[in-house]
Design a protein that fits this description.
Layout (H helix, E strand, L loop, with lengths): L3 H12 L13 H18 L3 H6 L6 E2 L10 E2 L3 H9 L2 E16 L2 E14 L10 E16 L2 E6 L2
Antiparallel strand pairs: 1-2, 3-4, 4-5, 5-6
Length: about 160
């Protein structure tokens, strides 16, 4: 019986899903690809790279900005203009993403994440005007769709 127990433990351990270090996220090709897209998104936001963000989006992309008002809504066609306008008003953008959960079902995925962003609001007045620092944080969900083997964002930026 003592010989069977170690074999059974090893068998069960081999069946256990590997987690990405420091997370409870299953370590597999899809979750790694989702995390890579989110990392590229973070880098593009910090660089205020509108074309870089747009390249990560699926043409079906829609986002309501988390509000009921339409003034902050985005879709794939409005992203270049709307993000350019928003980025023109801020500087020194720092975005931290803490991905809490990734769920993949076939060609659809979602990631629950906590974000913390810091940026400087540029004054429209004289250059000598003080610039306001702004911090924002919340929990959001980003949704994805696999297109031709590549994950694209469909909402949640």
């Amino acid at each position: 019986m003592h010989r069977i127990l170690p074999v059974a433990v090893l068998t069960l351990a081999a069946c256990a899903h590997q987690k990405i270090a420091g997370t409870e996220i299953e370590d597999n090709t899809d979750t790694r690809a989702i995390l890579d897209v989110m990392s590229k998104y973070r880098i593009a936001v910090e660089a205020k790279d509108v074309s870089g963000i747009t390249a990560l989006l699926d043409p079906s992309f829609k986002d309501d900005g988390g509000t009921s008002g339409a003034d902050d809504d985005l879709d794939y066609n409005s992203v270049p203009t709307r993000l350019s306008e928003r980025f023109a008003k801020i500087d020194n953008v720092k975005l931290d993403l803490d991905i809490r959960k990734v769920k993949v079902e076939n060609d659809i995925a979602s990631a629950v994440y906590h974000y913390n962003t810091n940026f400087t609001i540029l004054s429209l007045a004289a250059v000598s005007s003080p610039k306001a620092q702004k911090t924002d944080s919340d929990i959001k969900q980003m949704s994805f769709k696999r297109v031709a083997g590549e994950w694209k964002i469909t909402s949640g930026i």
